[in-house]
Design a protein that fits this description.
Blueprint: H1 2-12, H2 14-17, H3 24-34, H4 42-68, H5 71-77, H6 80-105, H7 111-137, H8 142-166
């Protein structure tokens, strides 16, 4: 009820309220107060410029390192025996994986086969890891490289022997 009386009073006396308007000077002050200019200090400018410079230097260093360690460049500088090991490792792992897929199809028919072959392959894998650790200590040790390739051959031979025996 109270609100309606006030509203009625304002409507009835509207013209008496509208006779005063602010001067242009007041509007200029209001406008100036709402327009704030952003000032960037010279110190902040230099900090931003330094941050950009650091980012550019780091990015340049990363690109430079990636160019130095590119696979093509590494292949040029790599020992031919190591290249042979890498190729042999890729070949044998692919062959062994294919043979294992064939063997795994027979696990249902020969359930004891799974434990036996996985035990043998894990043993050979353990030996291979030891050889790999030896190779890291002496990168150009030809006997270690040959032993690693031979280990891969044993794994493939094991898979071939199992497939020939079970003829699944």
């Amino acid at each position: 009820m109270e609100k309606n009386k006030l509203e009625g009073f304002i409507k009835a006396n509207r013209e008496e309220f509208d006779f005063r308007t602010p001067s242009a000077e007041v509007w200029d002050k209001i406008d100036a107060a709402t327009k704030t200019t952003k000032t960037v200090s010279l110190r902040h400018y230099f900090i931003r410029a330094a941050a950009v410079a650091v980012i550019l230097i780091v990015a340049g260093a990363v690109v430079w390192q990636s160019m130095l360690n590119s696979p093509q460049r590494l292949a040029e500088n790599t020992d031919p025996e190591l290249m042979e090991l890498i190729e042999a490792e890729a070949f044998y792992s692919h062959q062994v994986n294919q043979k294992l897929k064939e063997i795994q199809k027979c696990y249902y028919t020969f359930p004891e086969l799974k434990h036996e072959i996985e035990t043998d392959l894990n043993e050979l894998e353990g030996m291979y890891k030891l050889l790999k650790n030896d190779l890291e200590e002496n990168i150009s040790n030809k006997s270690v490289i040959e032993a690693m390739i031979e280990n891969n051959r044993y794994r493939l031979q094991l898979c071939d022997d199992v497939l020939n025996q079970i003829k699944c």
